[in-house]
Design goal:
Helix content is 40%, strand content 19%. The protein has 336 residues and is of the alpha/beta class. The protein has two domains: 145 residues, ATPase, nucleotide binding domain (Nucleotidyltransferase, domain 5); 173 residues, 2-Layer Sandwich (Nucleotidyltransferase, domain 5). It has a five-stranded mixed sheet, with helices on both faces. Strands 11-10-9-12-13 form a five-stranded mixed sheet. The chain has a three-stranded antiparallel sheet with strand order 5-6-7, with no helix packed on it. Helix 2 crosses helix 3, helix 6 packs across helix 8 and helix 8 crosses helix 9. The longest helix has 25 residues.
């Protein structure tokens, strides 16, 4: 990750901040200097199946290592921004539940981190953090109304209205992945059925491919997965699709169609200037976004559909980190 962002360039005398992006698969921690430079960056696996206590321990270890790697002491850090793939009660500092983090229920994550480092800790949803990052320093700079959607293991979202991040009453707004698209659809990790996440996420793409292979459909995905259908993931599907595999392309097209239906609902309700689609699955590029745009236009009203631009994030996979760092800086300045 490289780059400097204006919020830090205007505050060169400020202390560094730590940003942590906590996903269902990986944790990325970075220390940002007051001039916007990235002083350190550490990546580790979430290993979410081990449960909250061990993940929190791993978070604390990773934050400590990142501070040490940056050549800093804890006292030299202004605060910590957490971007978590979870449904968050901002007012109480709680991870209320997290579909892709097993057994995370009412976990006081900021308190558990703050107690270890004696630093202020600020938390928001990972997709909301990415929306904030892209709005202030990325593809959405200068816009008033935008939506960020991350399509990865799950699907999350963040919404900016009139230039401000929209958190809702409790801080858990924009759970876009859990819009119900198909009432009797496949089960979702949240415990409900037919959510957008269960139809268009990376997890859903892998599942749809495995189901069709199990029914005997032919595809190079078998070979790519070592003839073990259970090893087929969205990455396998993408690899096969890039080589022209008909089944893989059809699976992606199906998922993109559902994604487009979700986009159409957002366009009709919020009439945004831009929708930014990030996350690992978005790296499929035109294979995914092309049919998703087409589906959106087919299901949305003509005027807002013609206004909205659907783009990839300018900050790439770092949007959540940059947003979390900016959020920590913003909240710290309010309490100073």
């Amino acid at each position: 990750m490289a780059g400097r962002w204006s919020w830090m360039q205007m505050a060169r005398s400020e202390k560094p901040v730590v940003a942590v992006d906590i996903g269902g698969t990986k944790i990325i921690t970075a220390v940002f200097g007051g001039d916007g430079a990235v002083l350190s960056r550490i990546y580790c696996l979430t290993l979410a199946h081990e449960g909250p206590a061990r993940v929190v321990r791993r978070l604390n270890e990773t934050i400590g290592r990142a501070i040490d790697k940056a050549g800093l002491k804890k006292s030299q850090v202004a605060g910590i921004g957490l971007a978590a793939a979870a449904i968050i009660d901002i007012n109480r500092g709680l991870v209320t539940e997290a579909p892709n983090l097993p057994r995370w229920h009412n976990v006081k994550l900021p308190s558990l981190i703050a107690g270890e480092f004696n630093l202020p800790v600020y938390m928001l949803n990972d997709a909301s953090a990415a929306a904030l990052g892209e709005h202030r320093y990325g593809a959405g700079r200068g816009l008033n109304n935008l939506i960020y959607i991350t399509v990865s293991t799950g699907i999350g979202g963040g919404i900016v209205i009139d230039g401000e991040l929209y958190n809702g009453t409790d801080g858990c707004a924009a759970e876009i992945g859990h819009m119900v698209i198909m009432v009797d659809g496949p089960a979702c990790n949240c415990g409900r059925r037919g959510c957008l996440e269960s139809l268009a996420s990376g997890t859903a793409i892998g599942r749809m491919a495995r189901e069709r292979l199990a029914h005997g459909e032919k595809s190079t995905m078998r070979t790519l997965a070592g003839n073990n259908i259970e090893e087929v993931t969205s990455k396998t599907v993408a690899r096969a699709a890039r080589k022209g595999d008909v089944l893989a392309l059809d699976v992606i097209h199906t998922a993109a169609g559902y994604l487009g239906i979700g986009l159409a609902s957002l366009v009709n309700i919020l009439n945004p200037q831009m929708i930014i689609i990030g996350g690992g699955v978005s790296s499929m590029g035109a294979m995914l976004l092309g049919p998703a745009r087409k589906s959106m236009k087919a299901h949305a009203f003509k005027l807002p559909a013609s206004t909205v631009r659907i783009v990839r994030p300018a900050l790439g996979m770092d949007a959540g980190l940059v947003g979390a760092a900016g959020y920590a800086r913003q909240m710290g300045s309010k309490t100073a």
